[in-house]
């Protein structure tokens, strides 16, 4: 007997069998992110996470974050290379949680596509799972939705959400920041996952395809632009677990909005910082893109991270210890400024951002060569 309802759905462009195959291909990678706290395995309507461990906290606060990767997925699609975009997603979501000092517990993902290509979906989820393993985050569930007619056959978008936990008296933020604290910059791996609409605009105006080879980019343009987002969660949690960790007062993830705005969000109202550009040299990818656009690096400070993926605001006497601990994990860190609350003319400063009435930040000087 013919199942007309199934054949009609397939004719409409939705292949449930392809979705099932994608799950089979990704299942083992997802399972590797599961510890004893995860119940039920892969494929349930809801992921289950045993929260009984939270009974050991005096006052546990749950931290949550959600995000996507943005138009960086267009480059992955152009190169038909999908095994790195998952790390970008985890970085954008989980690294927001550690900003408040929280340890990530679990994450879910959502992939919307025009057509389920099992191998492609599996590549994306394997990347998510690998990054979840690196950040000790359980990938407890997800959804792949096929949207024919809304998205093209090779189009997709990804999003995710995560939950973490932090002891109430260990929450990091503006309330802990003091005058005289130093601001440390943590190096980025490249563009991470922000400002790709500007990247695509610049390349389109110069008729440069992602598949083109340019010496300035060190090879294929798209491969350079797909450099995965650096993951900061585990290294920062290791810092917080050291004696110097008590001297870390605030953290900031440099994402949308750029350098000054994201730092200003974690500083107290009435404080200010001059970020010294001369303390670092933006990576070649930023310089090449600005040369192609005919603009200055300073003009991109509100869009790209320009080499700073995170900030840490710490007591001055703990800065050297934090820097050396991060270096063990291969993350370069350096001092870029000092927090001050003295009376100061704040004209030209970025003051707060995204609804947060925070501190004031500006970038000063010239970048190092």
Automatic annotation (TrEMBL):
InterPro entries: PurM-like_C_dom, PurM-like_C_sf, PurM-like_N, PurM-like_N_sf, PurM_cligase. Signal peptide: none annotated. It is found in: Cytoplasm. Pfam families: AIRS, AIRS_C. Residues 61-166 form the PurM-like N-terminal domain. CDD domains: PurM. Its EC number is 6.3.3.1. It comes from the Bacteria. SUPFAM superfamilies: PurM C-terminal domain-like, PurM N-terminal domain-like. Keywords: ATP-binding, Cytoplasm, Ligase, Nucleotide-binding, Purine biosynthesis. GO terms for molecular function: ATP binding; phosphoribosylamine-glycine ligase activity; phosphoribosylformylglycinamidine cyclo-ligase activity. One of its GO terms (biological process) is 'de novo' IMP biosynthetic process. One of its GO terms (cellular component) is cytosol. Residues 179-343 form the PurM-like C-terminal domain. It catalyses: 2-formamido-N(1)-(5-O-phospho-beta-D-ribosyl)acetamidine + ATP = 5-amino-1-(5-phospho-beta-D-ribosyl)imidazole + ADP + phosphate + H(+). Pathway: Purine metabolism; IMP biosynthesis via de novo pathway; 5-amino-1-(5-phospho-D-ribosyl)imidazole from N(2)-formyl-N(1)-(5-phospho-D-ribosyl)glycinamide: step 2/2. Belongs to the AIR synthase family. This is Phosphoribosylformylglycinamidine cyclo-ligase. It comes from Humibacter ginsenosidimutans. The lineage of its organism: Bacteria, Bacillati, Actinomycetota, Actinomycetes, Micrococcales.
């Amino acid at each position: 007997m013919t199942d007309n309802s199934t054949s009609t759905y397939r004719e409409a462009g939705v292949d449930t069998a392809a979705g099932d195959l994608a799950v089979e291909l990704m299942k083992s990678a997802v399972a590797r992110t599961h510890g004893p706290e995860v119940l039920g395995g892969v494929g349930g309507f809801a992921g289950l996470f045993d929260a009984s461990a939270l009974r050991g906290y005096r006052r546990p606060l749950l931290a949550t974050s959600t995000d996507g990767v943005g138009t960086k997925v267009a480059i992955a699609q152009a190169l038909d290379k999908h095994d790195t975009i998952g790390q970008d997603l985890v970085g954008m979501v989980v690294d927001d949680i550690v900003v408040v000092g929280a340890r990530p517990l679990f994450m879910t993902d959502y992939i919307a596509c025009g057509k389920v290509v099992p191998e492609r979906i599996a590549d994306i989820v394997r990347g998510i799972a690998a990054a979840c393993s690196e950040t000790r985050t359980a990938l407890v569930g997800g959804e792949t939705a096929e949207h024919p007619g809304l998205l093209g056959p090779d189009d997709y978008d990804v999003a995710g959400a995560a939950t973490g936990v932090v002891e109430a008296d260990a929450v990091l933020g503006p309330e802990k920041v003091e005058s005289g604290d130093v601001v440390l910059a943590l190096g980025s791996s490249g563009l991470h996952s922000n400002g790709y609409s500007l990247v695509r605009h610049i390349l389109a105006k110069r008729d440069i395809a992602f598949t083109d080879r340019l010496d300035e980019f060190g090879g294929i343009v798209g491969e350079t632009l797909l450099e995965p987002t650096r993951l900061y969660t585990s290294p920062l949690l290791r810092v917080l677990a050291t004696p110097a960790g008590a001297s870390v007062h605030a953290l900031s993830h440099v994402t949308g909005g750029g350098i000054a705005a994201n730092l200003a969000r974690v500083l107290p109202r009435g404080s200010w910082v001059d970020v010294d550009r001369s303390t670092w040299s933006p990576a070649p990818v930023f310089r090449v893109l600005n040369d192609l656009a005919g603009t200055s690096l300073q003009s991109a400070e509100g869009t790209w991270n320009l080499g700073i993926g995170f900030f840490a605001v710490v007591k001055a006497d703990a800065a050297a210890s934090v820097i050396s601990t991060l270096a063990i994990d291969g993350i370069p860190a350096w001092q870029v400024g000092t927090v001050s609350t003295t009376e100061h003319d704040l004209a030209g400063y970025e003051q707060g951002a995204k609804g947060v009435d925070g501190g004031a930040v500006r970038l000063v000087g010239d970048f190092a060569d």
